[in-house]
Specification:
This protein is α/β, with parallel strands linked by helices. It has helices at about 5-10, 25-30, 35-45, 50-55, 80-95, 110-120, 135-145, 155-180, 195-205, 230-240, 250-255, 270-275, 295-300, 320-330, 340-355, 370-380, and strands spanning about 60-65, 100-105, 125-130, 150-155, 185-190, 210-220, 220, 260, 280-285, 305. It has 16 helices and ten strands. The chain has a six-stranded mixed sheet with strand order 7-6-5-8-9-10. A four-stranded parallel sheet has the order 2-1-3-4.
């Protein structure tokens, strides 16, 4: 077995720049550089949008992080985040054929990040924000989306939400079939009111799932309008979910049908699952250690269990969505990833996996390279 240190050290990372043209003659040189490249420069001078037709800015995705919320490690800084961003760029290329470049910023100041990204955006066709902590990630994404004419997606939010929704569609279908009762008025509990929790809540709320109640919890309890310690983003979530009186997670789980965790390791107990409705769905997605291990969740009565890990059944990972999402947005020349696009993508993933849907196989394999193509086609079709 190849060691991960060997993989990273052998080639000094996982990426390199490869030219798309050969330079074998003086004519080749004059066409790709001086003097003839000046003709391209002048076309772009007169028509700035032409930069995306004649240069790498028409196909390159920037994967940008400040290292403040990396995997399950938290704020480990820009340098330590770089291996993750490199890996994401490899996935873009391998699974969607997209060129991507990692950029880790040695600052965690919101205004400075926005300023830097705006300044370098001329080089890119899209921006993938990654591993930036909440609530700063919300402001950064919104401002950049409003001010730049290219797609800006914070994947920890939207990629995670898309894949989670697709998995929930499958889980509910399986539960309905097993119990021979069509689900309605389902109660959902989500723990972790950061980037992923916020986006998952919004997408479930906008979906057609038979959900009548969503409770979103942070480390201090239910995100509700009676709390005085909420920032504006959490207050928006309290209003969106209609929660007016805070409570503990233990209280919120009583009688719940679905648990979605994007929070802290070992924070869900067997007794808490036993307090839920019969045959609950448990998505324990904290990484690398889930809120509860799958075997314990099943012993406690969970009908279907998913995690964020690849060594258990039902891995929920945003890598299933983002290569195809970006490919579709660029192919269709879409500058905003709307809620409709996210819902269509989740539904497409769910429907693609229907022939193979089981309690232990809620989603297609991340290694299935047909998935990005299918997602991209769905997005392109959605705008026609």
């Amino acid at each position: 077995m190849t060691d991960t240190f060997e993989i990273h050290k052998k080639n000094t990372g996982k990426l390199e720049i490869v030219p798309t043209v050969q330079v074998n003659t003086k004519e080749d040189l004059s066409n790709i550089y001086t003097p003839n490249v000046g003709k391209i420069c002048m076309v772009i001078k007169d028509n700035p949008d032409a930069v995306r037709e004649y240069t790498i800015a028409g196909k390159m995705v920037a994967v940008i992080s400040d290292g403040s919320a990396v995997l399950g490690f938290g704020n480990i800084g820009a340098k330590a985040a770089l291996p993750v961003m490199e890996g994401k760029c490899v996935i873009f290329k391998e699974f969607a054929g997209l060129n991507a470049f990692p950029i880790c910023l040695d600052t965690q100041d919101t205004e400075e990040i926005i300023k830097i990204v705006k300044a370098i955006s001329v080089n890119f066709a899209a921006i993938n924000l990654e591993d930036i902590s909440a609530p700063r990630c919300f402001e950064i994404e919104k401002r950049l989306s409003d001010e730049l004419p290219i797609p800006i997606i914070h994947d920890d939010q939207h990629g995670t939400a898309i894949v989670t929704l697709a998995a929930l569609m499958g889980a509910i279908k399986i539960k309905n079939k097993k119990l021979k009762v069509k689900s309605k008025n389902l109660k959902v509990v989500i723990t972790g009111a950061g980037a992923a929790g916020n986006a998952i809540t919004r997408l479930i709320k906008a979906s057609e799932l038979p959900v009548s109640d969503i409770k979103l919890f942070d480390s201090k309890g239910l995100v509700s309008t009676d709390r005085t310690d909420l920032d504006k983003y959490k207050m928006e979530m309290a209003q969106l979910t209609g929660q007016t009186k805070t409570m503990s997670i233990q209280e919120g789980l009583v009688g719940a049908d679905i648990f979605v965790g994007v929070s802290a390791p070992n924070s869900l107990t067997e007794d808490m699952i036993r307090s839920m409705n019969k045959d609950p769905i448990v998505f324990a997605m904290a990484n690398p250690t889930p809120e509860i291990m799958p075997d314990l969740a099943k012993v406690a009565g969970a009908m279907i269990v998913a995690t964020g890990r690849s060594d258990f059944d039902n891995q929920i990972n945003n890598a299933l969505a983002y290569p195809g999402v970006f490919k579709g947005l660029l192919a269709a020349k879409i500058t905003k990833a709307t809620i409709e696009i996210k819902l269509a993508t989740a539904k497409a993933i769910y429907e693609y996996n229907l022939p193979n849907l089981t309690a232990n196989n809620l989603l297609p394999s991340i290694l299935d390279k047909n998935v990005p193509e299918m997602i991209a086609a769905t997005i392109v079709t959605s705008v026609k």
